[in-house]
Amino acid sequence: MNIPELLLPAGNLDKLKIALIYGADAVYIGAKYYSLRAQASNFTLDDIKEGVEFAHSLNKKVYITVNVIPREREIGGVLDYLKKLEGLKVDGLIISSPAILEIARKNTNLHISISTQMSVINSYATNYFYNNGASRVVLGRECSIDEIRKIKKNTKAELEVFIHGGMCSAYSGRCTLSNYMSNRDANRGGCAHSCRWNYLVYEDESKIDTDYPFQIASKDLVSIEYIKELVEIGVESLKIEGRMKSLHYVATLSYTYRKLLDDIKNNSLKEYDYYLKLLESSENRENASGFFSGRNDDSIALYSKNGLEANQSFLGIVLDYDKNKKEALFEVRNHFEKLEKAEVMSPGKDLFDITILNIYKDGIETSSAKNALDKVIIKTDKTLNKNDILRRI
Question: Which residues contact 299 (CB under 8 A, 6 or more apart)?
Fold first, then answer.
């Protein structure tokens, strides 16, 4: 059984490294130009160089999103930009413009993926792009598991499938609500997520009384129960959404889906609730399994008020560990106290619990760590490692 690539998002270099350390086979990133997600911490060419070198040192990959639809004033710079990316030895491009596809195909040897923005949901469209130079197609999130199976049987193209993250209430992101309501162009990376705003409902100019504000968003995608089937179908890549999400989100998703794929490979798959439990600390919105079941009803829509609160379980990350002193240099993300118990997520290991015995700030012992991004020294009752993440129990 071939295990597909696990592909994680990375909004900056720290997230790129954490995603790969925690189990991703590859990451996709956006540069300063020709990429959606304008609010993400997009990469400079120097950042890309460092990220690619780090990934390749682990025998892993970096794909670059070049997924805008370029305007006439922009198209002239595409070739030079793609040649620079090729010179940096990136592993591939994710493209949503036929123009950029043609330029890349004729002038580079880069692996080309067709973005989900192209709404490819059948084998005819898949084969069209394959026959015109694309090696891989990122299927639209509107595909059911049965449709993915049929597409795979009828194409030579590699298939990439979204398995986790935000869903769009429009067709593969083709929405202008944000443009109209906030003058932020959704398809240039500036989406204001207008579908997730709270609305009042009127009928014949009379407000309809409801117990909650009205939303028109989709629930987030969580597809744990479909991963084994996608593996058996033979898709080449499993993709997670979230270049604007936190480092903790990236680490948790990479850790969980790596464990799931390894368990499938080793015929040691656990009950799905086990993996869902691992994901809990990363989630702060309602979720569903999207279109995989073939259902298209209100079970995947977020019409009601989302009452989930911001998650504060991420206590911080170990920057370094002195085994002789049994001390960890620790970057704080949320408040915690001396003698508090915490859960440790460590790459390639099972979760385990510790007690935080001592906290030192600027060499002085203190009873708590209060400020995000403070660097403190902590001592615990068990050994830690660099890049371990501590979470509130």
Answer: 288
Measured between alpha carbons, how far is residue 365 from residues 153, 358, 361, 369, 379 in Å?
63, 7, 6, 10, 11
**Residue-level length of the chain:** 393
Q: What is the CA radius of gyration of the chain?
A: 22
Beta 26-30 vs 5-9: how paired, if at all? parallel
Q: CB within 8 A of 46, min separation 6: which ones?
A: none
Rounded Cα–Cα distance for residues 26 and 214 (Å): 38
**pLDDT digit string (tens) for 307-363?**
455 567 999 999 999 999 999 999 999 999 999 999 999 999 999 999 999 999 999
Distances (CA, A) of 340 to 200, 317, 383: 43, 16, 16
Q: What is the pLDDT of residue 244?
A: 81
User: DSSP secondary-structure letter at 382?
Assistant: S
Taking the C-alpha atoms of residue 370 and residue 152, their distance in angstroms, rounded to an integer, is 51
H helix or E strand, kind and range, residue 224:
none
Distance, in Å, from the CA atom of 248 to the CA atom of 233, rounded to the nearest integer, reads 30
The DSSP bridge partners found for residue 390 are 316, 344
Backbone angles phi, psi at 145, to 5 degrees: -65, -35
pTM over 0.85: yes
Which residues lie closer than 8 Å to 137 by C-beta, 6 or more apart?
A: 113, 114, 118, 120, 125, 126, 129, 130, 155, 157, 158, 159, 160
CA distance 374 to 332: 5
Span 69-111, pLDDT tens digits: 888 988 999 999 999 999 999 999 999 999 999 999 999 999 9
Distance CA 62, CA 255 (A): 18
- Mapping DSSP onto H, E and C, the string for 87-126 reads HCCCCEEEECCHHHHHHHHHHCCCCEEECHHHCCCCHHHH
